[in-house]
Amino acid sequence: MQTAPIRLDPWRGRRGVGASLNVLFVHQNFPGQYLHLARYLGVQSGHRVVFITQRQDGEIPGVQKVVYKPRRTISPQVHHYLRESEAAVLNAQEVARVAMDLRTAGFVPDVMLGHNGWGEIWYLKDIFPKALLIGYFEFFYRLHGADVGFDPADPITPDTAPRLRTKNLGNLLALDTADLGQTPTQWQKSVYPRRYHPILHVNHEGVDTTVVRPDPTARLRLGNDGPEFAAGDEIVTYVARNLEPYRGFPTFMRSLPAILAARPNARVLVVGGDGVSYGSPPTGPLTFRQQMLEELGDSLDLSRVHFLGKIPYPGFLKVLQVSRVHVYLTYPFVLSWSMLEAMAAGCLVVGSRTQPVEEVLQHGGNGILVDFFSPTEVAARVIEALEDRRVHDSIRQNARDTIVTQYDLKTVCLPAHLRLLATVAPPGASNSVGSN
Known about the structure:
- By secondary structure, the chain is α/β, with parallel strands linked by helices.
- Helix content is 34%, strand content 16%.
- It is built from 15 helices and 15 strands.
- The protein has helices at 35-42, 83-104, 124-127, 160-167, 169-177, 186-190, 249-262, 288-296, 313-322, 337-344, 355-358, 375-387, 393-406, 409-424, 430-433, and strands spanning 22-26, 48-53, 63-67, 111-115, 132-136, 180-183, 200-202, 219-221, 228-230, 235-242, 267-273, 305-309, 325-328, 348-352, 368-370.
- The strands form 3 sheets. The protein has a 7-stranded parallel β-sheet, with helices on both faces. Strands 12-11-10-13-14-15 form a 6-stranded parallel β-sheet, sandwiched between helices. The protein has a two-stranded antiparallel ribbon with strand order 8-9.
- Helix 10 (337-344) packs across helix 13.
């Protein structure tokens, strides 16, 4: 909770025509999708950049961070349809208080950018009515054609439709508030109502392909005295923020006994935590990982399957660089950064035949598509990839080329973000914003 008056960092430049811009970012999980854009603007001469967040840790040069916390938790008696909405209102109220303190301290943004998912941007225009607001719109919930009802094990009930319609309250409120919107993929834009498409711009955050790239000399050691793996070894990788059904974790795990039996030298590296990012939590006391280990039992050679948990980014890159084949499965939902990073690292990606994946992967061209629900098909394609690395070299190269030409941070995505800023910047500031 913001209690003390905000003191702005010393001014690093002189505001003038074409020379500066006041930018306000809002994202509870600093820096979230704004890492690259905030980092770029923070070091540009003359711009003043403030970032409102709930996270205490992390810094970006030239970016002043202001931390807030909602003043209370949601009411126990609130209707279950409205729990997320009430939490978002509490966030929005506190962000509005911080914004008023910023205004009192002399900071008035020209442009505001924030993720809509937690309500934080809802009341910003009431504090800064002349500032242009660009909302980040990640997903609009639908009864048909997306994640809901995709898994037959999770059927639609009479409660589903009204719950989803209510869940979109925040989406609709922000769509009415924002001047422009950003969404990372065409498919994610497509799930929003068509009447809002004119304000939604498809701009992915981008992949720094100078950092995320193949490394034929890459080596990865697990722990101080654990096994060491090198690029070219028979390494199968799987990455998710959390190991859960939305990212196809059960299907992946059920494919492993056949893969390990067919390829005695294969090892499996699994990155991800035991929490829940999307969907319902597991029933009972076991995590999804524990459930799968219990289900597979002795059919799974655990000496060759390594659960790495959540690891630092450099370690994650090494995992991709030693990978022979990377499995990425997802419901029709938000596309993970990790799939694009795997492609940039030169992995052969075996991906689910679902809409967000199919927007990027073309079967046999820059990746391999499989049935999300078929462990047998996943295993067959992975085994083929392990049998002869050279057979798929052209697909690996095509995968990297796709990211370099369509999703590269420095040549494609960051310039697109800067052009979007230039369209809403005040007269005279647009030249400096979109010039690089």
